[in-house]
Amino acid sequence: MAFANFDPLKISHSNSFDEVAIVRRQKRNIHSILHSYVGWYDPFAELIQNALDSVDKKAKQLDAGYEKKVRVIIDLISNSLTVSDNGTGLDETTFHRFLAPNESFKDHDARGSKGVGATYIAYGFNYLRVDTKTKTFIASGIMEGARNWLHDDAAPENPQVIPTDAPHIDSEFEQFETGVSITIKFDSKTKPNNLSWPNLRTADAWFVALSIKTALGAVTAYADVDFTVICKDKEGETSVKTVKSIGYIQPHAHLEKTREYDFILAKISENFQKKGAGAGLPPSVSNLEAVFLDWNSQKILTMLPKLDSAERALLQQHNCTIKASYIYTAEIWKRLASKIGYKSTANLYAPGIQLSADNMPQGEIIQVPLQRYTGRQNQVHFLIHFDNCVVDLGRKGFDKDFVDLAKSISAHIVQDIFSKIRDCLKIDDLRKTSLLEKQKVNGWKQNLIDHETSHPLFLKNENFFNPINEIAITAEPSREQDVIALFNQLIAGGVIRGIRIVGTNEQMTYDGAMRVCVGPKYEDHEFDFETNPLGISSAFRNDYEENSPNGFISNDIMILEYKYSINGLINDLHTGDKKASDISLVIAWEMGDTYESLFRVQSLLTEDGRGERDYHGITHKFFDENGNHAMDAVILKDLVNYLNNPEMETTKQNELYG
């Protein structure tokens, strides 16, 4: 149906005479609306949200038999997005008014109803095409240059919607009896400006992205909509993904061995009843890639008794629900990017809290605020939904009370709930290192060997390091640099005799390198409770002496790592910044309290443990969940306490690690 050109901005001010003042005021209003849209996926979110609202509305008006259809076309060649639906369509009055600021024609129960989304779509871009069909009205119009007009104070006239008889961009829209099809094109002035940026090249990949970032990711999934995503890549290849149900795709859905939290507790309890307290984990709940949960408000209240009264009241008032994934490695986000097909900097999946309202995700990811086990911030993903919650204009964010409640809930779950089943998660293969990383580390080691050969350092004099018989450091370490100073003084003073420092490093991932040396004065390395309490057993001495009568020194350069607390190392391993497979020895002032998340510790400062010390000075050994030796440690606080009061420290070590 043909229609006369019209200016959407004049609809609500047709009786006003101060046209310049009106336009200026309208531009300010539109600027404010556009500034509230800060997300890369906002145009997708708005158009998909509107399409789903439209088909839901039509379904309520018709008898059974109506099939909801929504189609999304991403064209990487034309840099355009088209969203079509077979919903109610826009009648003539609505068609002329829906682009005007603050006009909303949605029902009260629709997804969003603030009247700003259409304004954002109309004036946030320089190309908009709208096709509409109702039983009494059919029209197709194009508006161009709206974004440029908004930023041009000298623009001669407002942008207008002009009729077009060009073929529908979505050819399938021709078959719809009613509905709307909207196309927007992106350019250097728009956000986003290039649809190729996330490196999503297939319909499958785009479907996952839209199921995380838009109303396609319905928090409460439903199965009565025919949803199609079409991607035309830069080479002209077209891929299609069609589903009959929509819902938020949690990250654990892409993994293989996952279990629901309550299932795990039930299996552990069942195993305990059958086998008693010494029972290990049942195979069905061990070595998992992820643990997940899906709780309603009543379950949250029951499981999280530490929530205060105000939090509990807000939770109930807004019927808060939560879905969560706890994943075995912080590396998962990079791995998901590779598996799904997007560049990791696109941050589709990310650790933290995704807030949601109106049955769809909204806003940006928020970090889980942990006071302990902070490395687990990078292993969890929460989807938290609030009913009857008004989000800021556009997709800017939630009221602070909702954000604070979401943070509190997620922190309690990580610290009090997920901590109970962390042993069920598979340990990331800490022994595996990429070829590139290995080559880089090996190159660094070779440089140290070359330097050691070409620039040897030797200093020996019987008058040195005597006769004071005490260290020169007067205070306990309070930072990593103090640990380094104390450790090196213990080596220089002969307290620790099994380690030679080859070099330190400020550019590589790791702190330094060493060799293990034993002998040739083997009596200086053998354990004696009074004179050499950090020595090796006679069995180890005999092995060394028999095989290396002139003294043993390791051929391999070994990596040395310094930390104030082992907690720092555990965090580095969780985040993937460092690999246990690379590290031979860690030097720390204290053990900390997070080592159990990755390792079993054996103390060598006990009667049973000292026989396992295979070179002088080490105080502890770390073993992975499979019982494999991972690395050695010198815990300086324990070492000092042991040398000053061996009986008291031995008792303590037995209590902690026996």
Question: What is Rg?
Answer: 33 Å
Q: Total number of β-strand segments? A: 22
Rounded mean pLDDT is 86
Query: Percent helix among the residues?
Result: 25-40%
Class from helix and strand fractions: alpha+beta
Largest sheet: 8 strands, mixed
Number of helices: 17
**What is the overall shape?**
elongated
Distance between the termini: 85 Å
Written description of the protein model:
The mean pLDDT is 86. This protein has helices at 19-35, 42-61, 92-97, 117-123, 146-150, 203-213, 261-275, 297-303, 309-317, 332-340, 400-417, 435-454, 480-492, 538-547, 566-575, 636-644, 646-657, and strands at 68-75, 80-85, 127-133, 138-144, 162-163, 179-185, 225-232, 238-243, 258-260, 290-295, 321-327, 352-357, 360-361, 380-386, 499-504, 512-518, 552-553, 558-565, 583-590, 600-603, 620-623, 629-635. It starts with 18 loop residues before the first helix and ends with a helix. It has 658 residues and is of the alpha+beta class. The protein is built from 17 helices and 22 strands. Helix 15 links the parallel strand 18 (558-565) and strand 19. The strands form three sheets. It has an eight-stranded mixed β-sheet with strand order 5-4-3-6-2-1-7-8. Strands 15, 16, 17, 18, 19, 20, 21 and 22 form an eight-stranded mixed β-sheet that branches. The protein has a six-stranded mixed β-sheet with strand order 9-10-11-14-12-13.
